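Progress narrative, Year 2. Work on DUF2924 domain-containing protein from Planktomarina temperata RCA23 advanced from sequence curation to structure prediction during this period.
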Amino acid sequence: MCPNALGLCSVSKVKGNKDMGIDIAALDTAGRDELLEHWRSLIGRPPPKHISRSLLIQIIAFELQSKQHRGFSKRLSQRLKRAALRDVMRPAFKPGSSFVREYRGKTHVVEVGEDGCFAWNAQRFKSLSHTARAITGYNVSGFKFFGVKP
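Result:
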């Protein structure tokens, strides 16, 4: 049975735990400064500036449990790697390709540069979505805006 509201179990009593005896159940009552110190000792770098207290607790608890159980299972690691590759895989557009779209009565032409960046109105963008945002003024999928199927 797990003792805290997050449903996470205590690992401070695990033999050989080198993590300063941090008790997951005690994270709920720890102050922000104490949580930040736990983060630095576990992760080795300062946390993001505006991270919420609840997210700090969840990440610290995850890191503690991960160290206790020696990380992810081999199967989960493989699934995460495949998911990461799937997210990174996106169409590579040939340099010199053009995307043409009429928007609010004006024709916009975007060209793919040699480095894979997108050029529009003498500006360079790292993605088609950033280019579409510059044209429309709001966040929009570059693929949808230009009618490209990924």
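Residues 1-89 form one domain. The CA atoms of residues 17 and 67 lie 9 Å apart.
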